[in-house]
Task: inverse folding
């Protein structure tokens, strides 16, 4: 009887531990927005909020290989739109509403001085892709 109690207790502990480990490993979607600015002109380019498949934010709450996403936008703008010398960066989140709120605040700041013009990157022509890992 004592053996059965110990076995049941052990199973209960294992079940609780596995429940906590499963809770943390849920694969939430990652949303990304690209922004491109230049010191030589007054145009600021924004992509739409895009869902990137099979990407997971790491344990430090950072997007793996985030620089590669910036380079994707930079390469598109240089090669397809002819816009050189631009600084590109990405914002990301698991929560689309929070990301939209951040982007709205950023756009409002740029529009406040009325010296910057905001342009939308064509969503049919540009999509973020998961970088290939080597």
Result:
């Amino acid at each position: 009887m004592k053996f059965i109690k110990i076995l049941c207790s052990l199973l209960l502990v294992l079940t609780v531990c596995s429940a906590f480990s499963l809770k943390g490993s849920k694969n939430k979607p990652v949303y990304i927005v690209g922004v491109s600015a230049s010191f030589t002109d007054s145009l600021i380019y924004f992509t739409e909020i895009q869902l990137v498949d099979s990407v997971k934010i790491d344990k430090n709450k950072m997007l793996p290989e985030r620089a590669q996403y910036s380079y994707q936008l930079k390469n598109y703008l240089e090669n397809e739109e002819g816009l050189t010398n631009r600084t590109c960066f990405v914002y990301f989140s698991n929560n689309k509403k929070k990301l939209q709120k951040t982007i709205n605040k950023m756009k409002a700041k740029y529009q406040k001085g009325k010296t910057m013009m905001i342009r939308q990157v064509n969503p049919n022509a540009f999509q973020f892709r998961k970088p290939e890992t080597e």
